[in-house]
Amino acid sequence: HAAEAQRTDLMTITRHVLNEQGRHPGSRGDFTILLSHIVLGCKFVASAVSKAGLAKLIGLAGETNVQASKQTNTFTNHKLHAPGGPMRPCPHHDPCSSSVTGEEQKKLDVLSNEVFVKALVSSGRTCVLVSEENEEAIFVDPALRGKSVNPVTLAVLFFSCLLLLLLFDYLYCVCFDPLDGSSNIDCGVSIGTIFGIYMIKDKDNVTLEDVLQPGTDTIAAGYCMYGSSCTLVLSTGNGVNGFTLDPSLGEFILTHPNIKIPKKGKIYSVNEGNAKNWDGPTAKFVEKCKYPQDGSPPRSLRYIGSMVADVHRTLLYGGIFLYPADHKSPNGKLRVLYEVFPMSFLMEQAGGQAFTGKQRALELAPTKLHDRSPVFLGSYDDVEEIKALYASES
Ligand code: AHM
Ligand code: MG
């Protein structure tokens, strides 16, 4: 009977979030609206990814990824004007960037970014967006920010007339990487979208402060993996749930309720090609994985090179994912706002941990949009081990 009910009583992601919302008195569906726009973006990208080879979407779009140009410090005077506005010009046509040798952006990255920016803006529930693909934050046109009011006025209104609350929307800031793991696009290996969501403090005075919040302020985070199936993993701060896209229904259906990461894992996941530049604790940890001294069997190494896929496996099977600092990249590679924070939030919500080598990852306080940080995340006990190695070094 239970199996029959499962097949006929489908828990879609929207139904699930509406149910969760029902537990919070005073919530009026703003988050559900925002999420439905994120889900639309994920479905669009899932469809584009699956057709990429056929549609000849794979190839170079002739634009430059901001991460590469930031590293070479050659772009300084171009700003993105508006949501979904013009992307960076091709470096080869840009008189001020003749020295740019930056990584060229793939068409699918461009497309995914445009889709997400437009979907988020049109939700009417966002004020500011940060995308991996845009150097500057995108401040949403005030006319598209829904109805809101600053917190002081809100408090006054609350006490004067509760009904007036219905006039105002909660507004959000979304930090996202529209298509992470782009080096895997051309060979059909899993890639994904990552997102983290914060509340906006005052919609009439939206600043960069609204996005440069510590990870502990995250109210929801998730990722969508475009793999052998399309899976969306989400936490709204009340555990972690996984939904799989049923292509025949066009709906994400709850397939992995209440995900809990195993307390200890048997897998480690790291780019060992960087080993010669690692610091002591990382090198010692990986050595222990391969040559355990306590009689336990060696661990398996799994590394896809797509954070979403590597983290997804870690979440389901247990183990640890590492992107450490090294002598060449003292802050590691992964970006705090749209890679480290959302994945750390999910790990903690699933009972695991995330550590930077110095502190709990969610307690980082980013100062710039594209800040990077080392990260070690996964099963509770495995992260404890790396924490102990760093502690013994200092
Ligand atoms: P990207 O944003 O340029 O795609 O880079 C991020 C990706 C992550 O998905 C992955 O964990 C990491 O880069 C892999 O890096 P490396 O190739 O150095 O191992
Ligand atoms: Mg990326």
List keywords for this structure.
single chain, 394 residues, alpha+beta, eight-stranded mixed β-sheet, five-stranded mixed β-sheet, 15 strands, binds 2,5-anhydro-1,6-di-O-phosphono-D-mannitol, binds magnesium ion
Q: Specify Rg, calculated over alpha carbons.
A: 21 Å
What integer is the average pLDDT? 84
Ends distance? 57 Å
What is the helix fraction of residues, given as a range? 25-40%
Proportion of strand residues? 15-25%
The main sheet comes to: 8 strands, mixed
Coarse shape: globular
| Distinct ligand kinds | 2,5-anhydro-1,6-di-O-phosphono-D-mannitol, magnesium ion
Tally of strands? 15
Strand order across the biggest sheet?
4-3-5-6-7-8-9-10
Helix/strand class: alpha+beta
- One letter per element, helices H and strands E, the order comes to HHHEHEHEEHEEEEEEEHEHEHEEH
- Stretches with pLDDT under 50, minimum 5 residues: 69-103, 162-167
Counted by DSSP, the helix tally is: 10
Cofactor: Mg(2+)
EC number: 3.1.3.11
Domain Fructose-1-6-bisphosphatase class I N-terminal: 11-72, 97-147, 172-257
Protein name: fructose-bisphosphatase
